[in-house]
Amino acid sequence: MRAAVVNTPEATPVCADFPDPERRPGHKPLRLVGAGLHHVVRGLASGRHYGSDQAYPLVPGVDAVARTDDGRLVYTGLARSPWGTMAEWLVTPFEVELPAGADPLAVAAGMNPALSGWMPLITRRKEVGAPGTVLVLGATGMSGSLAVRAALSLGAQRVIAAGRDHESLERLRGLGAVTVPLTGATPDAGTAALGAAVAEAQPELVLDFVWGPVAEAAFAALGSVRVDDDSAPIDYVQIGSLAGGEAVLPASLLRSRRIRVSGSGKGSVSKEQMIAELPEVLARFAAGTFEAPYTAYPLSRVGEAWAHQGRTRAVIVPD
């Protein structure tokens, strides 16, 4: 079959022949419709992601929309290594049918980033109910913007969206979020802006898609607000690290706040939990609550897709 193939770490994928995926009992091969080129896909392919097998050659891709032999469109993923989803044929352990009205390529572009914020939000709602205030760090990326939409759709009373892209912040403001620009003349400007927003309503849930110095600014903001014994505990969930892989967590914050710092990602969320949530997330794409702008690239142009940047997500489609 034709597939995107990564031959060595850091190599750009090429379109080449690759062995057909191994059959699984009870799972017929699926034909690719579209596979999103997510940050995690690049990380796994390069060996930098903690979940990488670092075995080459491989086909990249963690999820996709595909067509069954009877013509149904399904969302799928978790193909067995070295096969990923950027190939003509897929053999995967699950299939969830797309609802009517869902754009299959928007689903391919957006399901992975949408799930990254959805899972901690839904876990929080199941544990204690809808949070009063949610702070999203990195809200202007695709994952962060979908997390803002998810928090609003799940009943958060207040959503604070912090990010660098002013145009994206304006769109989130139009949805009802309180926006905080993280750009300024000095690093302290971001801390001050976050502090002002947090002072109005202490977040009960923080979704951090960037980590690094942005996380440190958030820690400073959270620590600067006066609290009392009745203040709600804070769940701080680390999801992505686009701003840096390290952040200094002040001991004083841990001692002065009822705060729990945890992570959400491959290994901390079970496959069963994720698959159980897929129909709810797909329904929001079908309804237009979730949006994921995309740029489609055929398999033969996977090298161009790998270099894609901007507000849209690259999606690999068959030639």
Automatic annotation (TrEMBL):
<protein>
    <submittedName>
        <fullName>Zinc-binding alcohol dehydrogenase family protein</fullName>
    </submittedName>
</protein>
<dbReference type="InterPro" id="IPR051397">
    <property type="entry name" value="Zn-ADH-like_protein"/>
</dbReference>
<dbReference type="InterPro" id="IPR036291">
    <property type="entry name" value="NAD(P)-bd_dom_sf"/>
</dbReference>
<dbReference type="InterPro" id="IPR011032">
    <property type="entry name" value="GroES-like_sf"/>
</dbReference>
